[in-house]
Amino acid sequence: MSRSIDPDRRGEADADRPILRQLERRLRQLIDTLYPDTRTRPGYSRLAKEIRDTTGGSISATYLWELATGKKRNVTLEQLDVLAEFFGVPPEYFLNDEVSERVNAQLALATALRDNKIRNLALRAEGLSSESLDALLTMVNQARKLQNLSQPEAPSATADEGRPADG
Question: Per-residue pLDDT tens for 58-81?
Fold first, then answer.
């Protein structure tokens, strides 16, 4: 006896199967990271061609769009491997929360380092004493507060890290 899902209850079924939602969210996140400027971001047709040209794998623009929008969720291992190869992530990125979090932290750092001023700041900070680095972090955190910016999502070193607790 086959089991079918009432279309009106599909959302409930998806809630019980979070991996289905993760695939589309993580794929969109990779596309956004690789192409942060929405004005120059390729359409799915060009992106599928780039994926085919880069990896030699087969993926159509329609199928890529369907995966990214959640319309299709029956990705094959071969297609998952092609996507992972193109975006430079392990295939487990799409399936494993721990791997995804680790890769997202690395992607956030790589994205930040695209900015010449951030990269120069990081390179010039190398070799400074722990106290000087703590002072720089304090200044950066204060500047973020003055500009009403939230703290970065990626785990970062804080001035108190590595120090024994007062007690």
Answer: 899 999 999 999 898 888 899 999
